[in-house]
Amino acid sequence: MGEVLMRAEGLKKVFGDFVANDGINLEIEKGKIYALAGENGAGKSTLMKMLYGVYKIDGGKLFIDGQEMEKYNPSIAREKGIGMVFQDFRLVPAFTALENAFLSVEDMGNYFDKKALRKKMNEISAKYNLGVNPDEYVWRLDLGQRQHIEILKVLLNNETRILIFDEPTSVLAPNEIESFLELLTTFRDAGFAVILITHKIHEIVQVADVVHILRKGKMVHTFYREDGLHEKDIVAKMVGTEDEKLANVQATYTGEGKVVREYKDFALKCSHMTIRDDYGRIIINNSDLQIAPGMIMGVAGISGNGQRELTEALYGIRKIDAGKISFAGEDVTTANIETRLEKGFRILSEDPIRDNLVPDYSVLKHMAISGFDYKKKLLDIDWEDLQRQMDACEEIKDLNVPPSDRRAEKLSGGNIQRMVFARAIIGNPKFLIVSYPSRGLDIATVNAVHETLERLRDAGVAILFISEDLNELFTLSDRLCVLSENMIHGPYLPEDFDAEKIGTIMLKGAGE
């Protein structure tokens, strides 16, 4: 047995009448990678926030180096060498990476030694190949680059021994994931203990030494690498199903029996479209895009190649620099968001926490924002009628959206994703923009998301579908386009291509 850095005995966390964690026991040893798996709402993030001191422990005991933590908070956790990279990043967009890092370095006092901090950041960034420019503003960076800053902030603490990652690969492009997993093994080999929350089972099998399975707030099973790690066994324990039901869930990813659809006309037409990024540089140049009613247009591309700018331009958040956008035969190039909403535009952005959330609003209140058609009652909304609509909504049931009285700031990243996706699809969309809809979701909910998108497609909705998972894109898309070399390449028939060909276009453009 290795050196035990942390031990939990019977940990319990309660929110009102809801028991998020119940009787959790675990030991964290030096030099091992621990994966924590379970469906959304299983209690994974809650447990990690107790281990990091964000949430007060309502029952049980926590020991670090054998000492019981009777008083515990994030500051004490950091002193004890525990660092956490949250799913929702703790960064100030208007600050540079250097300035954000300074906010996390507690032993520097009030004196801001930029030269010393920049030197240390560059050393850590180079050592782990993080590629962080200390003087870059955070608001200009994509999600993957922001994550690198969060990792660097944790490593700036010389005491750090335990690294906690909450869904770290959900913001990474496919080509970045392998490097990140290698980074985790580097940490392990250097003597760090790593705790990893992820829904991607192949990542667990690839790097984990110990796999803890949570279901409904309880630790239900533990797998060890020396006994063999198998994806099917892990998923079965996560979802609590019999093998035959599990096989049906996995079958949704095979793409077998897919129908090739032909289209005569298009709902969305973008001609010679040029879009600039936040720096004023051209990110998409003189490109065309057409999406028909009843079509899922998949978008592949390395993270930061214009995905966010494209969705913002189509939704009306960002003006295009040149070209024309029309929908249902009408020019909407300069139309505002309100007009596009009236025409049936709906969106799930790449970062719902940043773009689609009011933290102190309940789930029910969020459903009143471009969701259900609500009635007025005196000077307010008829909340009882809205609640009846929500209770009767099949999409909300299928996606297992959290209870209507839960506040958004208390939801996990996966549950926020469920809520925002449900709100987008209940508003009778004609054109649906979805960015990474499966990000942070458990397998059962991913299955429900896929079925929902297919049902909307069959009902005649035009769908732009962005994902970093090529397997998911090939499974769902009727056509594929690729963002690369400042162009929209395609469309391509998925049946005529494979992942290697699409990956080559992602890296080199269509001319290779």
Write the layout of secondary structure elements.
Blueprint: E1 4-15, E2 18-29, E3 33-37, H1 44-52, E4 59-64, E5 67-68, H2 74-79, E6 82-85, H3 97-104, H4 114-128, H5 143-155, E7 162-166, H6 174-189, E8 193-197, H7 201-207, E9 210-215, E10 218-224, H8 231-239, H9 243-251, E11 268-276, E12 282-291, E13 296-300, H10 307-315, E14 322-327, E15 330-331, H11 337-342, E16 345-348, H12 352-355, H13 363-367, E17 376-377, E18 380-381, H14 383-392, H15 394-398, H16 413-425, E19 431-435, H17 443-458, E20 462-466, H18 470-476, E21 479-484, E22 487-492, H19 499-508
Parallel strand pairs: 3-8, 3-9, 6-7, 7-8, 13-20, 13-21, 16-19, 19-20
Antiparallel strand pairs: 1-2, 1-4, 4-5, 9-10, 11-12, 11-14, 14-15, 17-18, 21-22
Helix pairs in contact: 3-5
Structure commentary:
Helices cover 35% and strands 25% of the residues. The chain has 19 helices and 22 strands. Strands 6-7-8-3-9-10 form a 6-stranded mixed beta sheet, sandwiched between helices. Strands 16-19-20-13-21-22 form a 6-stranded mixed beta sheet, with helices on both faces. A hairpin with a 2-residue loop joins strand 14 and strand 15. The longest helix has 16 residues, at 174-189. The radius of gyration is 23 Å and the shape is globular. The N and C termini lie far apart (53 Å).
